[in-house]
Amino acid sequence: MREHRKARHSLTACAAALLAAGPLLTGCAEAVSQAAQSASVPEERPPVVMFLGDSFTVGSGPVAEWDTYAADTAKTLGWQLVTAGGSGTGYVATGRVGRTFERSFDRQLSWRPAPDLVVVSGGHNDRRARPSTVRAAVLNLVTRVRERWPVTRIVLVGPIWIDTAPQSAYRTRDAVASAAWLAGVPFLDPLTQRWIADDRARVLLPDGVHPTLYGHLRLARWLAETLRARGLAGDEAAPAALPG
Question: Residue ranges of the SGNH hydrolase-type esterase domain (predicted)?
Answer without folding.
Answer: 51-216
